[in-house]
Specification:
133 residues, alpha+beta, GMP Synthetase, Chain A, domain 3, two-stranded antiparallel sheet, 4 helices, 42% helix, 24% strand, globular
Length: 133
């Protein structure tokens, strides 16, 4: 399958899925869900949907609810994409941990400031205070 078409289809599914989850408040009451990424299989048979859920404490609970209602969500997605796709991929939901991972890296860097990196405008790169020694 053409990678450009796959990426375009993934973005289309991401947009429609976001709108669907926003409109369906009975599944997501009191929770903000963002569809951060959709990764499609090359044959468009399956889609991995990465979700960012706020508050974080409700993430696993909401994920279980969405996984239990995957067939209904896929059906609703099929209705909204009927004119653009013949077959709707099988949906798999995952929690997107990238923000949490980035936060942990920032905490580790702040906790152990062994290097002082500053931006060097002339070379358009990063220099370390250790380079001067």
């Amino acid at each position: 399958m053409n990678p450009i078409r796959t990426a375009r289809t993934a973005r289309m599914i991401q947009k429609e899925l976001s709108e669907l989850l926003l409109a369906d408040t009975r599944l997501t009451r009191g929770v903000i869900i963002s569809v951060t990424e959709v990764r499609l299989a090359p044959d468009l048979s399956s889609a991995r949907c990465y979700l960012s859920i706020f508050p974080d404490a409700k993430g696993p609970e909401i994920l279980k609810t969405l996984q239990a209602n995957t067939s209904t969500i896929r059906y609703d997605l099929g209705n909204s994409l009927a004119s653009r796709m013949r077959v709707i991929p099988e949906l798999y939901f995952y929690l997107d941990r990238s923000e949490e991972y980035a936060r942990k890296i920032d905490e580790l860097l702040d906790a152990n400031p062994t290097h002082d990196y500053t931006r060097d405008e002339e070379s358009e790169g990063w220099i370390s205070s250790l380079d001067d020694e």
